[in-house]
Amino acid sequence: MNNRIIDFHCDVLYKMLYEGSIHFDREDELDVTLPRMIQGGVGMQVFALFLEDSLISGPPRFSQVLRCIDLLRERINALPGVEYIRYREDVERWEQNADCIGALLSLEGVDGLEGDMVYVRTAYELGARFVGLTWNHANWAVDGTMEPRQGGFTSKGRQFIRECDRLGLLIDVSHLNENGFWELLDLTERPIFASHSNSAHVLAHPRNLKDKQIQAIIERNGRIGVTFVPHFIKAAETVTIDDLIRHIDRICELGGEHHVMFGSDFDGIDRKIDKLEHAGQYVHLLEQLDKRYSSTFVKQIAHTNALQFLKTNLPAKDE
Ligand SMILES: [Zn+2]
User: Fold this and answer.
1) Mean pLDDT throughout 26-50?
2) What integer pLDDT is reported at residue 56 of this predicted model?
3) CA of 108 to the centre of ligand 1 (A)
4) How far is the CA of 196 from the centre of ligand 1 (A)?
5) Centre of ligand 1 from the C-alpha of residue 229, in Å
6) Which of 74, 98, 111, 249 has the maximum number of C-beta atoms within 10 A of its C-beta?
7) For this UniProt entry, which residues form the secretion signal (predicted)?
């Protein structure tokens, strides 16, 4: 079971920002901790930077973005064996060192960038490589999935996409409303990805992707991280690993066997999938996948699909 899992979404930084004393190297203060990553065979984790309106006074600000980046650097990346992954070369080094734990930075919602391209460039300079445009609501760029008007991009939002293209910031479409999704495909020609979304064919939820959206992501050679949020898997009291696998099946039916990966949303969820309650339990998911799929595919979803995406799309150091 040596698949070195890559997970494209967790909310550890959110918890660290609002609960000051949390430690990443202690066993069980978080769903994703260093010991749990090692236990579950998780070799690389994308850390999302999410600022919750109701927990901060006033609108999200860039100073809070900086605070989160500082938390990542001081409390996670500074731990022995953890490497900050920003460039292709970092990924290649990670591949060669089986004990290395990789950490990547993503923004979940551009709110804290305040519509200022100087802040966008600064976040990139500090290592942010992915950017989710919205959380559930509207912001200065575009509307989120739960915003009633389901609006597309503002002119500032379009300018932002041009700046992302220029810098090489990769766009995450989880949380983006469907109109915005289709408009985005006209605004950029680069691959897009959904870090933590499931199939709307299996469960019709606004946070899930319709078949047409999944196909469009596949056509761009983007990626879809299936997520462990019970609400997006099945409308039932208890949700199992088998229920999650139905979403994986659907993405594969649409031709996504080289595009599907994991985006757990650990530390962003209160309810959990039975037997898949923290990063240390990834082994249970791989066991179930092994029963249904070829070992080649299990390796792809755990590791290779995400890895290829990073190697193709992260900037080279000398660029
Ligand atoms: Zn989310």
Assistant:
1) 95
2) 62
3) 7
4) 7
5) 9
6) 111
7) none
